Amino acid sequence: MKNGYIDVHHHIIPDAYREALAEVGVRKSGGKSIGRWSPEMSLTHMDTLGVEKAYCSLSEPALYPIVEKDIAMGRQKARMLNEYMAKLCEDYPGRFGAFAVLPLPDVEGAIEEAKYALDVLKLDGVGMLSNYRNEFLGNRIFDKLFDELDQRKAVIYIHPSIPPDESVFKRPEFVPYDYLQEFCFNTTRAATNLIFSGTLERCKNIKPILAHMGGTLPYLSWRLNRCFPGNKRPEKEKQVLPEYVYDGWCSLSDSLYEYFGRFYYDAALSCHDIAFSAVEKLAPNHTLFGSDSFYAALDSAKKFVEEIEAYHTGAAYDNIKRENAIKLFSSSL
């Protein structure tokens, strides 16, 4: 299929992955059951939606429940799954790309796997979750990993995860599924943490994609920029982190809007005019198509396409459909 959509939010569920999660008692993702999947199912979805190429990834919880039980097993599963994705891309040329899964929160293992996945397997980027239990992206434990990814100009697909442990976070009684709203909040927390920690300032070459139009980040952008204490220090006193921290806040060299504009935003489950308008103002030409297969229903993904086509024409439509993605992945080579 030529000139079709390019889908950056396409989850695969290999049998070996689903079975490995079941072995540690995990059978749901964000409150939804983890179903069966095959490459043929993906291709059927893609053809139905008019998708030319899908960049596949694992959804929440990725590998962290396995890593928590057995670090060596987590590393083994990451290697197996990344080689599986490389073979998938080889078997269906032009139809699939892939974001490597990393055995986080095992940072040492994640660094080695990122090197192998990007340097040897030549996968298109890495997939990361917004948080691993209580550790959000941007926290200091991830610094060495982000430094390695920065050296490789890596595309990083950031997918939300469930909130921290119940002992820290009590879910609302009548909102039983994390994917309804908590996913959006955790994406926002991860994005702002990457900024406030100085990670984006230090790692200028990474290209992070935020799922679901960045959660609530576009809506909160004015408030975040206006209220961030790190923007209030005199310009001459600002330095690149981590050497300088003011009252617990990172002192950044740019307006927060500069960092918001570095993210890419996929439109899965966020295809409406308010979101499109907000993201386009925040990060021009950084909106990407996402189907959220195989967790969002096919009927929902069809609606995503309908909404994109209803709100956009000409170059704006082509950019979301495919051109923004082509430029993103070309720039990472």
Report on this model:
- The protein has 333 residues and is of the alpha/beta class.
- The chain has 13 helices and 14 strands.
- β13, α11 and β14 (287-288) form a beta-alpha-beta unit.
- α4 packs parallel to α5 and α5 (107-120) packs parallel to α6.
- The radius of gyration is 19 Å and the shape is globular.
- The protein starts with a strand and ends with a helix.
- Mean pLDDT is 90; it is low at 232-248.
Q: Keywords, please?
A:
333 residues; 13 helices
List the helices and strands and how they pair.
Blueprint: E1 5-11, H1 15-23, E2 28-29, E3 32-33, H2 39-49, E4 51-57, H3 64-69, H4 71-91, E5 96-101, H5 107-120, E6 125-129, E7 131-132, E8 135-136, H6 143-151, E9 155-159, H7 182-196, H8 199-202, E10 207-210, H9 217-227, E11 245-246, E12 249-250, H10 256-260, E13 264-266, H11 273-282, E14 287-288, H12 298-311, H13 314-331
Helix pairs in contact: 4-5, 5-6
The stretches of 5 or more residues where confidence is low (pLDDT under 50) are 232-248
H/E element string?
EHEEHEHHEHEEEHEHHEHEEHEHEHH
Rg, alpha carbons = 19 Å
Structural class: alpha/beta
Largest sheet: 8 strands, parallel
Query: What is the tally of helical segments?
Result: 13
